[in-house]
Amino acid sequence: MQELDSIDVQLLQCLQLDASLSNVALAEKVKVSAPTCLRRIKRLHDEGWIERQVAILNADKLGAALGHALSALVEVTLDQQGEEHLNAFEQRLHTEDAVQQCWRVSPGPDFVLVVQTADMPSYLALSQRLFTQAANVRNVKAFFSIKRAKFTTTWPLR
Alpha-carbon Rg of the chain, whole angstroms? Predict the structure, then answer.
């Protein structure tokens, strides 16, 4: 795997701000030829620097339109923290679309989850599926969002 040079960093910076730019527009922004730009972007994908390209949807509009209006940050502590127990819990989370993010953390709880559900009854149903005694969960602490003050997906590259 190659290291990143200044052109690569510029490309990544541009793409994380607007991945819908055409190859020609992107090449103009970083002052390289379109074929060079295309080749570099392909390499950045192939080497795993770019994980995927997605559209970021407006959470407020979606919440109003679809009823996904309850956001929660949930701390989860397992009863047993062996690697097999941690991995098993992570696998359970992969089956739940409402769990948008899962972070294994230390110190403190074992996991921090970002959860999006339609309402409190939906959250209760999710919590009963995920946090039962059979799931090896000792403690759950949920924080419910009243306002998203900041959200970004960009890394500070400059």
Answer: 20
Residue 64 reports pLDDT greater than 90: no
Task: Give CA separation, 53 vs 72, 128, 148, in Å.
Answer: 25, 33, 23
Q: What is the pLDDT of residue 1?
A: 59
Question: 30 and 11 in contact (C-beta within 8 Å)?
Answer: yes
Helices (H) and strands (E) in the chain, counts: 6, 4
The answer to whether 13 and 44 are in contact (CB under 8 A) is: no
Token reading at 93: 């989370």
Query: What is the distance of C-alpha 13 from the center of its chain?
Result: 18
- Asked if residue 35 has a cis previous peptide bond (ω within 30° of 0), the answer is no
Choices 1.10.1740.10, 1.10.240.10, 3.30.70.120, 1.10.10.10: CATH for 6-46:
1.10.10.10
What is the Cα–Cα distance from 24 to 14, expressed in whole angstroms? 13
Run of H or E including 112: strand 111-117
Q: By percentage, how much of the chain surpasses pLDDT 90? A: 78
